[in-house]
Structure formats: C-alpha cells, structure tokens
Specification:
The chain is an alpha+beta fold and 177 residues long. It has 8 helices and 5 strands; from the N terminus they run H-E-H-E-H-H-H-E-H-E-H-E-H. Strands 3-5-4 form a 3-stranded antiparallel beta sheet. A two-stranded antiparallel ribbon has the order 1-2. 21% of the residues are buried. The C terminus is likely disordered.
Length: 177
C-alpha cells in the first residue's frame, strides 16, 4: 500500500470479496488469491468505495494497471457482478462460469431432482433442463441419474456478454424465450 494511503476498511474488503466470490472478478480468470483494485485510480478518487473497488488476481491487476484491460471494461465487470450475484445462486453462477470456460459444450449433467437449484436460469430463459430416462446403470446402482442443463440461445448470448465485458441485461420478462 502506498505511503499515506489509508487501509481499506475490513468490512469493505469483505463486501468486495463476497461480491466476487473470493476470486478474480474477470469472468475468464476467476483465479485466487486476489488483491483489491481501484477502478478509478486512488490518486484521483482519494477514497475507498465499494463501487470503485474490484477483486482481481495479481496478474489481472497488473494487466489493468498496464492498460491491457481498460477502465470501461473493468466498470462493466463490476456492474455485471452486481447484477449476476443479485439474481443467481452459487450453483447457477458456477454453471455460467463453466459454460464460459467451455464454449463448445452444449450442456452439463446435474443430479436428477437438483433442477430447483438452477431455477432462475430456467425462469429467465437462459437454460433448460432436459430430462433423460434413467439408464440401466443408474437403476442398478441405486443412483437417481442425471438431467441435462442446456443453455438456450439467450443463455449463450448472456455468457458471451459476460466474457466480453458487455452489459448483461436484467430480464424484464421472466418467461423463457
């Protein structure tokens, strides 16, 4: 921390870390450990505020400081974090992250009966749950089997926007597209 700059208050640090899930806020990174970065440089802002702080891994923080990641993108990452964390649960966010990291995959397997944990993704039309008949193996071993969580076109567009630091649109119409 530069000399003369006050420390970031611990409650504010906690709030920023929780917003980013204690990982780098860059959707294609999500590394740990993280540092606190000022979107508008502290030298200009002269204060620590939630809206101006973002959690970044040391590599992404250095890239931001060098200008490899621009301030408008960083501001959009911050806005998207707030929208996504306000609407989706941890499993839904992990699913979106997985799809962002595996752009050619069409669906993931989730345990049968866990589709409720992805309810806002399906309600917003970003994903569908594809039922599958139980296989002989699942009947034989007593497991409940799986269903497929499949991104819709709207879901693929949302993941693309998250990765590209473009605004993620809140849904006005909760019915599936």
């Amino acid at each position: 921390m530069p000399q003369g700059r006050p420390a970031i208050p611990v409650p504010l640090q906690r709030q920023v870390l929780m917003e980013a899930g204690h990982r780098c806020a860059i959707p294609t990174c999500r590394s740990t450990p993280v540092e606190f970065a000022h979107i508008k440089p502290y030298a200009q802002a002269k204060e620590h505020t939630f809206d101006n702080l973002i959690a970044l891994c040391p590599t992404c923080h250095a890239r931001f400081d060098r200008g490899d990641i621009d301030a408008p993108s960083m501001r959009q990452y911050k806005l998207n974090l707030g929208l996504l964390h306000g609407r989706y649960g941890p499993l839904e966010l992990q699913a979106l992250q997985w799809f962002a990291s595996h752009p050619n995959q069409l669906e993931i397997n989730i345990p049968r009966g866990m589709d409720w944990a992805f309810g806002n993704l399906t309600l917003d039309g970003l994903a569908t749950v594809e039922d599958r008949p139980p296989t002989w193996a699942s009947v034989h071993d007593g497991s409940i089997g799986t269903v497929g969580l499949r991104l819709t076109g709207k879901g693929h567009e949302a993941v693309r926007r998250i990765i590209k630091a473009e605004p993620v649109e809140p849904t006005d119409d909760p019915s599936p597209a």
